[in-house]
Every structure is written in C-alpha cells, then in structure tokens.
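Please, structure for the following, as tokens.
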Amino acid sequence: MNEKDFIFSKSKELQLSGLKSFPAAFTDLKQTQSIEVPDKQLILGKEFFGSFEVTTPSGDFVLTFSNETEAKYIVYASTNRINKIKIPKEAESINKIVEEYEKYLDTILQEIRRDYTKRFPTGKNLTLVSNSIFKKLNLIRL
C-alpha cells in the first residue's frame, strides 16, 4: 500500500464510521441567532486590531467578529455550504461547542497519525497525508 492508497482507504473508513456534523452533533441550538453567509466554504482571515475576519478562499470579505472563537464557529459551520448559520447567542456556548469540535478533530488526526506510522514507519508525509484526508472528508482544523 502506498500513501495514495492509504489516503483513499482511511478517508473511506472514516466516512463509513459516521463523521459528526458541525454544529448539529455538538449542540442542541436552542437559543440561537441566524447569520447569513455565502453558501461557500469560508476561511479564517486576518486579525485586525482585535477583530477577526471571515473571508472566502478568493479573499472576498464576509464578516468580522470581535472574538476568534465566533469566527472559527462560522468557518467550521460553513463546511455544510448553507447560507444561514445558526449560532448560539451566548459566547460561553460558542466556546464550549468549538472546543468540543476541535477535540473531536484532534481525535481523528491522532487516529490518522497512529495508522500512518503503523503502515509507514519511516514515512515523512504525515502532514500532507492528514491534510489530504481532511480535504476528502470536507473537514478543516483551525
């Protein structure tokens, strides 16, 4: 098995295991507000005087947030390609949800690392392989 085959098989294995969807699997979304965004994958832009930008991959400005965690929430939720994202009204809830989701993503990355090092003990492309698997699964870790 080469790395390309590993990427394909590990992606398929993770997909079949039932990946959790953000934010639905991490919250009950009772008290929320809706934010309209383009139905595209968004990225975390630059921090500018304490504000955090969310942009499209082509660099088009979408929104600014005073809190990095809120910006991350929107970026993570944008992987669903919907134009209205429900976000909790309370900052504490947003922090908790994003923290839980990032722990979940880290668990997936640890699993990839474990399986990669078993298959390729001298392999040096773990980052490239992990990124490729995440891209196939439409996941992003900020």
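Helices lie at 3-16, 68-77, 91-119, 126-136. The mean pLDDT is 92.
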